[in-house]
Specification:
globular, alpha+beta, three-stranded antiparallel β-sheet, 250 residues, 18% strand, four-stranded antiparallel β-sheet, 9 strands
């Protein structure tokens, strides 16, 4: 079972500055990476009623111009030839960009190294926090391009203004991140930020393990939402609502 517990943070002034700065850097990175994905989407799409049958509207070389060739992968083996044999094996590297496809998440994650060289301020951020920004972009684009079980998709993703990007996440935390400081006050140990005091008004149930942590900005201050999990506890089953037809059986 997965649960989320939310606590009020009581950061010091220097910690508040770090958290606010990280949030702004994460917002800028989110907008930049989303722009990359949308530019790619617009460059490679064509209207359904005007799709060419034998040529590409955009030259293939232009489509892949900013992507290293080793990041362009072949299909995963599902495509088969006339004899039923897979054309490519899973994980094959395509020697040419033609008929290749791009795993954008891996491309953007690899580009974070270059981002830190061009913008040294990103070196102060924890690497997993920065990687989570790319994951958010990936989730946003998946919701936009891939239909859900009902066949519906989300609207076109929007860029985030300062008042619309209010959180960043640590994908990997544990119970050891919940400690007491020298004064006996409960703190959450956030990597590269330090021990941040918080109001521990709800104890974590025995057997549950802390998995992730999301720092959230709200009108009255900063909060942290901890995702906790205990695999031995079954997921709650939805209650069956009685109806007239069901009551007739008894």
């Amino acid at each position: 079972m997965l649960l989320k517990y939310k606590y009020k943070l009581k950061p010091q002034k220097n910690q508040m500055l770090i958290i606010a700065n990280w949030l702004e850097l994460a917002r800028k990175q989110y907008n930049y990476r989303l722009a990359e994905r949308l530019n790619w989407f617009e460059a490679t799409r064509t209207p359904v009623n005007a799709c060419p049958l034998n040529v590409s509207v955009v030259p293939v070389e232009r489509i892949y111009q900013n992507i290293p060739e080793f990041r362009i992968q072949a299909r995963d083996g599902r495509k088969k030839d006339g004899d039923g044999n897979p054309v490519t094996k899973k994980g094959d590297r395509h020697p040419n960009i033609i008929n290749g496809y791009v795993v954008w998440e891996t491309v953007q994650l690899a580009d974070l190294v270059q981002t830190k060289k061009l913008f040294p301020e990103y070196k102060s951020m924890h690497s997993q926090v920065l990687q989570d920004v790319i994951q958010r972009v990936q989730t946003t684009m998946d919701n936009f391009t891939k239909p859900d079980k009902n066949g519906k998709t989300s609207g076109r993703p929007k860029f985030k203004g300062k008042h619309y990007y209010n959180s960043f996440s640590y994908p990997q935390l544990s119970n050891t991140n919940i400690v007491k400081n020298a004064n006996g006050r409960f703190c959450v140990n956030l990597p590269k930020i330090g021990l941040v005091p918080f109001v521990y008004n709800r104890s974590i149930p025995r057997g549950f393990k802390v998995k992730t942590g999301t720092v959230i900005r709200e009108a009255d201050g900063w909060y942290i939402s901890l995702t906790i999990e205990d695999k031995t506890v079954p997921v709650k089953v939805a209650e069956i609502q009685p109806t007239a037809r069901k009551l007739k059986r008894y």
